[in-house]
Amino acid sequence: MWSMDIYSLLSKYFLGEATEKEKEAVESFKKNNSKEFTLLSKVWERDNIKVKAFNTQKAWNKMGLDVSVESKPKVVPIGTILRSVAAIGLLLLGAFLVYRQFAAPETIEMLLAQTSTEERNRQVKLSDGTTIFLNRNSKLHYPKTFASDGRRVSLEGEAFFDVAENPKKPFIIETTHSKITVLGTSFNVNSNQQKTKISVKTGKVKVNSVYNRKFVTLTAGVSAVSSSKELIAFKTQDNNVTAWKTGNFVFKEKPINEVIQALNTYYNGQIESLKQNANCSFTGTFKEAALPEVLKVIQLSCGIKLKTK
């Protein structure tokens, strides 16, 4: 626990009465004790601690502290104490102690779902009924039970979300480049070191950039890309956004290299063209087709040789 001086100093800071030197001291404290500073700020805002027109007994009662004004040896009357900034610091200290004791953050047990190169379409069921399907090489951090004030997970890699509806508790997905907020919807998220791509299937999704205050709202059939350079929304043009999960592909005049790249999201990178820059546009549909069948169709259509790794 810190000395009484820091609480007095913080009181002046929150009141806007701190000198430049005192502000520097507070910033130093904030830098070294960020969690405590945030908690004290919340205490200050929550209990509405003020110097002017201050109701002493009511304030102490609000914090659950029993303050008696009976005469006792060597006790300064509380009304006199609260006229000084130091006393407001004392009040802040008391509020902090009570707040920390009775309003401490919930202890949340975090879990990790992780897929390997060989594992695709792993299903994860969350405590609120939300269902998530993880693609290969992906990580999902999520709580065993959600906190009372919201639903929050983090994702590295690719996943399809079918979020249970709860207007009172938004569902938030954090990636390297964005914060995605939903109430109840289904959508795909593909996040890597360079960018995060979000494609909405049903419902509505809000995407916030972590680099600035920009955000976009997406509806069904709309996608967005978030990176350190941009946050843009556009109509979804890729018919195969979730094909890695379903195995259902639709191609219309697509360059063969793009076709192979898309198919490999489902067939685990097994397809390879013997001709690196084959000049062919492919049109066709596959529905959970066996790999040999896929190879045969493409080779006959494009007149090229394909192999599996």
* Average pLDDT score: 80
Number of helices: 9
Structural class: alpha+beta
Uncertain stretches of 5 or more adjacent residues: 48-88
Question: CATH topology of the largest domain, what is it called?
Answer: Jelly Rolls
**What fraction of the residues are assigned to beta strands by DSSP?**
25-35%
How many domains? The number is 3
Order of helices and strands: HHHHHHEEEEEEEEEEEEEHEHEEHE
> Number of DSSP strands?
17
Q: What is the distance, rounded to the nearest whole angstrom, between the alpha carbons of the first and last residues?
A: 62 Å
CATH architecture call of the largest domain? Sandwich
Shape, principal axes of CA atoms: elongated
Largest beta-sheet details? 13 strands, mixed
Description:
This protein is of the alpha+beta class and 309 residues long. It folds into three domains: 4-102, no CATH class; 110-235, Jelly Rolls (Sandwich); 243-308, Phage tail protein beta-alpha-beta fold (3-Layer(bab) Sandwich), CATH 3.55.50. The chain is 30% helix and 30% strand. The protein has helices at 4-15, 20-32, 34-47, 56-62, 78-81, 85-102, 243-246, 256-263, 291-302, and strands spanning 110-114, 122-125, 131-134, 139-143, 151-162, 171-174, 178-182, 186-191, 196-202, 204-209, 215-219, 222-226, 231-235, 248-255, 271-273, 281-287, 306-308. Strands 1, 2, 3, 4, 5, 6, 7, 8, 9, 10, 11, 12 and 13 form a 13-stranded mixed beta sheet that branches. A two-stranded antiparallel sheet has the order 14-16. Strand 6 and strand 7 (178-182) form a beta hairpin. Helix 2 crosses helix 3 (34-47) and helix 3 crosses helix 6 (85-102). The longest helix has 18 residues, at 85-102. The radius of gyration is 29 Å and the shape is elongated.
